[in-house]
Amino acid sequence: MKKKRKLDLKPIEMDTPWANKVKKKAKYGKLPIIKQKLRKKMFPDGVENQTGSPIPVNLSLGTYEDQIVPRKVVEYFIEKAGTILLIDCPCRTANKCKNHDVHLGCTWMGKGASKVDRSKWPGARLATKEEALERERLAYENGLVPHLGKFRSDARIYRVLDYEDEFMDICHCCSCCCVMSLTKYGPSDLRKMVKKMEGVEVRVDQDKCNGCGKCFKVCIYAGLKMKKNKAMINQKNCLGCGRCERVCPNKAISISIDDYSRIDELIARFESKVDISG
Predict the structure, then answer these.
(1) H-helix or E-strand spanning residue 132
(2) For the chain, what is the domain count?
(3) What's the predicted TM-score (pTM) here?
(4) Strands (E), 191-229
(5) Angle of helix 69-80 relative to helix 261-271, nearest 10 degrees?
(6) Of 47, 89, 70, the residue nearest 241 (C-alpha)
């Protein structure tokens, strides 16, 4: 009897010397002593002061006030931002990504964005709201998932730590290069920072799933598991980015939102932690 070939369920994710070094070191961050030191350095005011969330780019979520869900969220913050800085995607640039446009990178907002040394970041330039909104349109068409983020680590990397609470970004992430894929290798505090948008749920129809494993290739958060040759959602890890739904050939995966008021809740969550009006 011919032995069934084992499926490769490892995601296609960031594969650079730097990223692989981070993966190897991340396990040490789970040791109690090192974890405590990292907590003091990265979360001096507590993990709850840091927050991030992917915004699913899925037509099946429908529209809210005549806009698709991701556009409604990101346009709100762009319209509010006092300063907008556009840069090329550092992850795709470093990983030489051929699947998505490197120029559709991060959109930084707030007073902190005006203090970034633009000479150190490819493609960095101050932009108008119209230019930022056009980037959102192009990123959506390019199949990129927007991630909202307010992290102390970002303020440290961009050397604007004095403006930590006035510095927020919209990253446009692909599945092969997103630096967020590395969080699953580190301590639990890192994973607590990034949360699924409340009310968003991803499901797998077991009758339609044929266990092909294509969804696993784009899931960088370990949000899937295979049981009896069928894909299942690991609800503990799933961040509701919606990539798996988009690649499923049998339409076995669905994504839904229980109430559009969740969009206002997400906006309020960020507004309670960051002021980008400057």
Answers:
(1) helix 129-141
(2) 2
(3) 0.87
(4) 200-204, 224-227
(5) 30
(6) 70
